[in-house]
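Worked example

This section walks through a single chain of length 211. The input is the sequence exactly as stored; nothing has been trimmed or padded.
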Amino acid sequence: MLFDSSTLLAFAAASLAVYLAPGADMAYIASHSVPHGLRAGAWAATGTVLGVFIQAVAAATGATAIFLVSPLAFEAVRWAGVAYLCWLGIRLLRAPAPGLGAEAARRQRAGPVVLKGMAINLLNPKISLFFLAFLPQFADPAQGGMFAQLLTLGLLFAGGAIAWCYFLAWAFARLGGWLARRRASLIWQNRISGGAMLLFAGLLAVAGVRR
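Given that input, the structure is written out below as tokens.
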């Protein structure tokens, strides 16, 4: 057995704290779920979770350790992430009030929504460093191979992220149904989501390399 029950409980509690922290992925899921419903929100959630999954596997294999030894690589990906979040935020701020209902949802194509969600997490190297620091805290060399332990922990984290992100999609879709009866409130939908994206872009921009 790779992990005892106390380790798994501690990991679950720490993971939950991470899930609850607001982030660009939460804003992205909201920007699709509120105006377009659960299906579009589920696509957005799928994209963000795929990004988390790839980051977790990369950390387990040691691929993301490049950010520890190459500040240039870290900075290149970080600024690409800043530019991407700014682009998403500006697009949301400049967009008209979002459409509602089945017709608006049908205009949402799954592929682009999923890929944009993936990019939010893949273009944030601080997530890579987070996994490099977070996962080993719950691994023990005495319990077996570190790769197997880190990969298992990464998959468990991604599994929890699936449940959390799909819950967010459902909750924001319900909120969208409530706002549909108060259409004037939707004028602020894109402004809030776009402002959140720009905020997270600013936070990533000032983060720098802290090791």
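What to look for: The mean pLDDT is 84.
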